Amino acid sequence: MKRLLVVAAAALTLVAHADTYPTAKPVTLVVPFTAGGPTDRVARDLAEAMRKPLGGATVVVDNAAGAGGSIGANKVAKAAPDGYTLLLHHIAMATMPTLVRNIPFKVDSDFEYLGMINDVPMTLIGKPSLPAANYKELSTWINANKDKINLGNAGVGSASHLCGLLFQNAIQVDMTTVPYKGTAPAMTDLIGGQIDLMCDQTTNTTSQIEGKKVKAFAVTTPKRLTTAALKDLPTLQESGLKGFEVTIWHGLYAPKGTPPDILAKLNSALKAALKDPEFIKKQEGLGAVVVTDKRMEPAEHKKFVAAEIAKWSPVIKAAGVYAD
């Protein structure tokens, strides 16, 4: 009887919170990566864009980095399901189940999916001295130097790491992978010629491509990009890698058990933010494309992540890499 009363009291508390949400305290967006990176920038832009549709609520960003993005995700999975602690995560939601050993939560059942935010294209780039002017010449050079090529990335589980894995898998060539502690040192060594290749987000590569500090060979989207700096870059698909497509997407999540009316308020606020001209402008400045399709809906968001898990799991297992 006592337990029933406790459960009933907890349910009434959640209902009360739902009626007043989100006025009780600030809404926290947990970002499972360090401040200043691409995902952090997306989160800060979204926090500002969601403030007005949430009735002027304060929305703050909390960086909880580590373990391939699983520390921040676990923090949200274990948080009170009251709508005040949310997770903004990228493609790692699809790769953590395979990439992270002993993951302390279940991606498919410990979160409420709120909707997708954006897609960020990737670019295949090389050191300035690399003797290739286009992807065809790059392919010839790769085949002639298989045992000597260094492929850099921003660390195990990073976007550049995942793109590099898929690229090696697609061309059936194993390169020496060089993980760094972030994109900045990897880019520095690429520009300096200490590594040969990298596949990274447009958020990190566009300025380097514009400044001709690196060689750009292709984008990883099905169609060419329309941004001025990248519009002349061919896709890897049209360059011969049929079916090759990688985008680093971001989505929004709440702890499992968050009341339906709070979830509805959050989804509505997210949709409003995705239509905010200032948010769209900021995302375009990062080289990102704001989601406008059915993936804004929770069910379609979850379906998409499930498909991404199926896509990445065999690639990661074949590579035998893990983020502890």
Describe the structure.
Strands 1, 2, 3, 4, 5, 6, 7, 8, 9 and 10 form a ten-stranded mixed beta sheet that branches. Helix 2 (38-51) links the parallel strand 1 (27-31) and strand 2 (59-63). This protein folds into two domains: 2-120 and 248-319, D-Maltodextrin-Binding Protein, domain 2, CATH 3.40.190; 121-219, D-Maltodextrin-Binding Protein, domain 2, CATH 3.40.190. It is of the alpha/beta class. Helix content is 42%, strand content 19%.
- The overall average pLDDT, rounded, is 90
Encode the helix/strand succession as letters.
HEHEHEHEHEHEHEHEEHHEH
What's the multimeric state?
Answer: single chain
Number of helices: 11
Helix content: 40-55%
Layout of helices and strands:
Layout: H1 2-20, E1 27-31, H2 38-51, E2 59-63, H3 70-77, E3 85-89, H4 92-99, E4 111-126, H5 135-144, E5 150-153, H6 159-171, E6 176-179, H7 183-192, E7 197-201, H8 202-210, E8 215-219, E9 247-255, H9 260-274, H10 277-285, E10 289-290, H11 298-319
Parallel strand pairs: 1-2, 1-3, 5-6, 5-7
Antiparallel strand pairs: 3-9, 4-7, 4-8, 4-9, 4-10
Helix pairs in contact: 2-9, 2-10, 4-11, 6-11
Features:
10-stranded mixed beta sheet, D-Maltodextrin-Binding Protein, domain 2, 324 residues, 2 domains, 10 strands, single chain, alpha/beta, 11 helices, globular, 42% helix
In short:
By secondary structure, the protein is α/β, with parallel strands linked by helices. It has helices at 2-20, 38-51, 70-77, 92-99, 135-144, 159-171, 183-192, 202-210, 260-274, 277-285, 298-319, and strands at 27-31, 59-63, 85-89, 111-126, 150-153, 176-179, 197-201, 215-219, 247-255, 289-290.
